[in-house]
Amino acid sequence: MNPHQTDFYIEGQEKNILIKYDPQAIAEYYRYRPWLVFWRGIKIIWFFGIFFFHLQWDKWTKQVEKNKLRRATELRQLLTKLGPTFIKVGQALSTRPDLIRKDFLNELIKLQDQLPPFDNRTAFTIIESELGYGVREAYREISDNPIAAASLGQVYRAVLHSGEEVAVKVQRPNLRPILALDLYLMRCMAAWLAPWLPLNLGHDLTLIVDEFGIKLFEEIDYLNEARNAEKFATNFQGDLDVKVPLIYWRYTSQRVLTLEWIDGIKLTDLATIEAAGLDADQLIKIGVTSGLRQLLEFGFFHADPHPGNLFATPDGKMAFIDFGMMDQLEEETKETLASAVVQLINRDYQALARDFVQLGFLTPNTDINPIIPALEQVLGNAMGESVVNFNFKTITDEFSELMYDYPFRVPAKFALIIRSLITQEGLALSLNPNFKIVEVSYPYVSRRLLTGESPQLRKRLLEVLIKDGKFQWERLENMIAIARADDAFDLLPTAQLGLQYLLSDEGKYLRRQLLLALTEDERLHTEEVQRLWGLVKDELKPQKIFDFAFSNFREISLERVAAIIPTAISSS
Fold first, then answer.
1. Cα gap 267→429, rounded to integer Å
2. What one-character-per-residue DSSP string does 87-101 give?
3. Mind telling me the catalytic residues?
4. pTM of structure
5. What are the angstrom distances between the C-alpha of 328 and each of 75, 308, 537?
6. pLDDT tens figures, 218-264
7. Cβ of 62: how many Cβ atoms within 10 Å?
8. Dihedrals φ, ψ of 190, to 5°?
9. 565 backbone dihedrals φ, ψ, rounded to 5°
10. Nearest to 333 by CA among 359, 355, 315, 307
């Protein structure tokens, strides 16, 4: 960006100088405009200074408890006055009960959908300038006032001339220069604070600001949001439980988005959900399963699933809206995430530590041996005596303490994933306080690995099932038992896939490991065959087991196989 370029503003209208977030370009721009930085910085410091003084005054006068609700309201109003960047920060914090005390949390939640709108004349002017024709030319009807106002825009209810009912999302004016200046100040503050913070917190602080900036600039590009919505809809095509609104491209631009109107119930409105006859637990299951599919199957996930962006439809579907903040995971990351969950199931903390290295939570040169006992202590306690006692917030609470003692760091991308998971669990718990997210997630992950369609995913399964050169029967039994908890899981196709894999060249290593397990010390163990039979006896006929052994274990005497399998089956 040329320092002598015109300002971000042209006759009161925003000029799209910077479409994508570029910290170097922003820094170069404001280097020649220090007065803008100075006055904005003074305003931010003044507002927060007054707020923190009030907090300290409450401590001095011993009125903390009396004034706590007043201070929570003051914080929400402060963030609202400072504008969209700080509102987005407040929204992010509203999903972190592990960081924010409850009274503040209840107020910050209001930032999700209880914000002041901007005036209609400005909104309609933006519509006309973006679409190139009048509001009444585009829409047969449009609400006189916005029906919802958010941090970056507001929504009107309208009807197209062709009769479709739509939502019209209009962006707040002059958004890019406001965001750019605030992000520049945040980045400067992050760079200044980094040396004073523990390494694991300060190491990537500017990168976290940059990730936030990238997502904010993507979120204010409504053309990008429309593309995200269509990609999301394509991923869930055929899923009868998920609803994604249609995009009307003719009435969509960078700052105006027209999409299908969806009648829905907020997921936090439990009374209305019950009155509509909807099953809260089923809604939770849809939300958790769709979230896992986004992370582990598609790699394209909704990074901002707060209650203002998710609705229950009258027919029991989960409707997703607002696709501005999305992120994409690499294939290897998806596979490693699935592997890490299974390592957690099996309490294999050494393998889990290796997965943390691959995911970027630990550097490649980290000595993981001292970390393994700490992982076992923290995650073992959080897991409880059984997997159903798992609670994601408990894990994050315990893990945050671990990060102070060991060289863990949170990769910028995973800050979004963690936020997404905590938000989804928070929604689930608001619908059913006794719900355990693991009751849905573990079966899905086990099923995902057992039916892995890619060589990489099958390799992950082998890493789980074979440890120190030995086949781990207990793990296979555990995974199948957990997968069976999912009503959608059918063992027969999975067994067929497994047999096909065993017969292939790719399955040579697994065949050898199974042979070693079955014929350890040159003996064909009746109990091992019983175990193998026990895994599939409900779905497969004895003849299929015999055919499988006959076709694949030619290294063993066929007479021995024929003699022992009926015995194993009859006694199982």
1. 11
2. HHHHHHHTT-TTTS-
3. 304
4. 0.71
5. 33, 22, 40
6. 889 999 999 999 999 999 998 999 999 999 999 999 999 999 999 98
7. 8
8. -65, -45
9. -65, -45
10. 359
